[in-house]
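Question (not urgent): is this output format expected?
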Amino acid sequence: DAFFRRALDTSTYPEATFALSQPVDVSMLGESADPVTVSATGTLTLHGVSRPVVAVLDAQRTPTGVEVVGGISVTLSDFGLTAPDLGWVVVDPTGTVEVRLLVGR
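Got this back:
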């Protein structure tokens, strides 16, 4: 874990952010408990580099509001990062930033 924090330089860049560029329409949720898939267009900032991205999210009503889960596919080099190579383990140069959001009523 500490190795990956160093590889991501989290002491200099302790936060990653995702900012929506437009509202996400979840009106199709209605009162149903069935999940719906939506796309959220925005900007991901990671390691001080901002890139436009699309997050694919599943939204579902819960007894207390709405739960949204999904991910944003990333290529580390797009954000000025190099996938670590420890010799005995090699990290894939692509990955997913996972998202979980709980929205209360």
